[in-house]
Amino acid sequence: MLEYEIHKLRQQELIDSAEEQRRVREAVRGHRAARHEGARGAGHESHIRRLRRHWSARAA
Q1: E strands of 1-60, at which residues?
Q2: Which H or E run includes 56?
Q3: The pLDDT value given to residue 45
Q4: What are the phi and psi torsion angles at 56 (to 5°)?
Q5: How many Cα atoms sit within 13 Å of 17 on the Cβ side?
Q6: Stronger pLDDT, 26 or 44, i.e. the higher one
Q7: What separation in angstroms does the CA of 60 have from each of 36, 43, 45, 55, 57?
Q8: DSSP state of 46
Q9: How far apart are alpha carbons 42 and 30 in whole angstroms?
């Protein structure tokens, strides 16, 4: 009977571990999607003409 209880505890641990890993994967996927959407929105603004800093010094 003790082996059966140990087996059931181990089985539940594995199920809990799998559920936690699934939640972590979903969270990471959500963060990546949000970052991708943020980059996509900023992508249009990156093509706006801006004053660029020249690397060489100006002549006086």
Answers
A1: none
A2: none
A3: 53
A4: -90, 150
A5: 6
A6: 26
A7: 45, 37, 34, 15, 9
A8: T
A9: 18
Instruction: Give the chain's radius of gyration (CA, Å).
Output: 27
- Residue 36: the pLDDT is 86
The model's pTM is 0.54
Residue pLDDT, tens place only, 11-26: 999 999 999 999 999 9
- Mean pLDDT across 29-50: 73
Structure-token match 């003790």, residue found: 2
In this structure, what token pair is assigned to residue 40? 């996509």
* CA 33 – CA 29 distance, rounded (Å): 6
Q: Tokens 């949000």 identify what position? A: 34
